[in-house]
Amino acid sequence: MKKLIGLLMFTLLVVAGCTEPVEETYEAPLKEMTVHFIDVGQGDSIFIEAPNGKTMLIDGGVKGAGKEVVAYLKAQGVNRLDYVVATHPDADHIGGLISVLNSISIKEFIDSGKVHTSQTYEEMLSLIQAKNIKFTIPKAGDEFQLEDNLIIEVLAADETASDNNDASIVLRAEYQNISFLLMGDADHGVEQELLQKGTDVQATILKAGHHGSNTSSSPKFVEAVSPLATILSYGQDNKYGHPHAEVIDILKNVNSEIYSTAEAGTIVITTDGVTYDIGAPQWTGVGATSSIPASASTKSGKVELISKDLYEEIVVIQNSSNQSVNLEGWKLISVEGNQVFDFPDMNLAPGKKLSITSGLDAKAGAGTLEWTKRQIWLNSGDAAQLVNVKGEVVSELQ
Amino acid sequence: MNYNKYTLDRFDGDYAIFLKRPEETEQLLIHHTEIPSELKEGDIVNIMDDGFDYKIELLKEETENQKARVNNLLQQLRNKE
Questions:
Q1: Which of A35, A134, A45 is nearest to A82 (CA)?
Q2: Which of A43, A379, B8, B54 is deepest in the core (most CB within 10 A)?
Q3: pLDDT at A386
Q4: pLDDT tens, A94-130?
Q5: Which ranges in chain A are annotated with CATH 3.60.15.10?
């Protein structure tokens, strides 16, 4: 799903600028940066990783998702976060940040400054204070720079808003020609204000406000953003009916591709500032067990077994190809005893690892699947085989 | 029948989302038609579920105290900014 924005812009500039001396405006690709929309169910958690290793985490999902967010970050090799943003104090955004504060060192904490009486918000502030973390309440126009070419601008922030959602810190990350607009739960009022102020909201990728609720993403605003792809961060079968049908229609009207964490799990977007790649199938709207995988992720790439721990009962596989692989129909086999694990319909992004756990400590989480609470692997030695959708053994560990 | 203490974390669509204090890992969704109309985000309440409907009592003083405490904490952090 590579998009050649740079080339398109170059062509437009050449056509538009034919009376001027032709100038080389094509910008060269930069090193890859990554934006992870972490699957936290009904909630938000977004992780930005600059090529120089600087990081920003925006929200952490509900409290129960915190451990998974931490496990996900640790699996990415993150031991320290440069910035953590709490867009607004609702529990489905700040809850998981408690675990993050407890487990990962943070250089600067950016808060909306909107007070909440929840124990969770108090706990968050107490931890920031106890750990002596630099604390910032930003204003519109403030910028956070991860590196020379990667600037994250605060488009909106209002600690005096009467509604928590309206207090949302809205961020726009720009990496040369590719940009991300991260709306938090900001609703129509905030969107209208941004348009009235003439703020540049155009973005390649939009994280739609408030989990695809019809209180956000007005037609005018979405038109101004004109996203090529939109991420909806919601939980399957939520009681609020997110994403709302009108929002889907509005997004389709501007020809935006649509992706959701509910269907695809964690969505990883990589970009070199010229092209971008979304390691997930597009949203179908028919649920997580959709049988209509998108074309890009059905091609079979190379996935291998990289480790097995017979005592801890953890087997790790990795997608070592450069394209996303859908694991539906794939199997993991414990050769002794011929126990078979059937992978669910999920995508493994390029380079990503996935753990399959069994035994008493088996559990599901970010990057981790639970096979069974039973012991599967014989401690005395037990080969593992990975079988692809065609039934071929693609990888084996003795 | 026991009362449990909750924070009204937020409203979303037709529902009010309450979090059970103090851990706030457990949430209770109640349709907005079943709660007193004067309740606001941030209110701390006692909720009793008798199996038929919810009896919700606003803990005004506790809400005010909590607000003051968090404001104070935020002020301390702000002063370090």
A1: A134
A2: A43
A3: 94
A4: 999 999 999 999 999 999 999 999 999 999 999 999 9
A5: 29-278
Give the integer Cα–Cα distance in Å for B39 and B18: 11
Residues of chain A whose beta carbon is less than 8 angstroms from a beta carbon of chain B are 62-64, 90-91, 95, 113, 115-122, 125-126, 128-129, 134-137, 163-165, 213, 239-241
Contact of B23 with A87, CB cutoff 8 Å: no
Residue A159 near residue A69, CB atoms below 8 Å: no
Taking the model in full, what pTM does it have? 0.73
User: In the predicted model, is pLDDT for residue B24 greater than 60?
Assistant: yes
Q: What is the pLDDT of residues A174-188, one digit of tens each?
A: 999 999 999 999 999
Share above pLDDT 90 across residues of chain A, in percent, rounded to a whole number: 68
CB atoms A119 and B78 under 8 Å: no
pLDDT at residue B21, rounded to an integer: 96
What is the pLDDT, as a whole number, of residue A287?
44
CATH entry, A29-278, from 3.60.15.10, 3.40.50.970, 3.30.450.40, 3.30.2350.10: 3.60.15.10
CA distances to A27, A223, A340, B6 from A16, in Å:
17, 23, 60, 60
Where does the pLDDT of residue B53 fall: very low under 50, low under 70, confident under 90, or very high at 90 and above? confident
Q: How many CA atoms lie within 13 A of B12 on its CB side?
A: 28
Structure tokens that stand for A396 in this block = 């084996």
Side chain identity at residue A13, one-letter code: L
Kindly determine whether residue B13 and residue A240, on different chains, have CB atoms separated by under 8 Å. yes
- Tell me if residue B46 falls in helix, strand or coil: strand
A77-A78-A80 Cα angle (round to 5):
150
CA dihedral B6, B12, A224, A271 (to 10 degrees): 60
Out of A122, A163, A164, name the one closest to residue B73 (CB).
A122
Contact yes or no for A241 and B13 at CB 8 A: yes
Percent of chain B with pLDDT over 70: 98
Q: Does B20 touch chain A (CB under 8 A)?
A: no
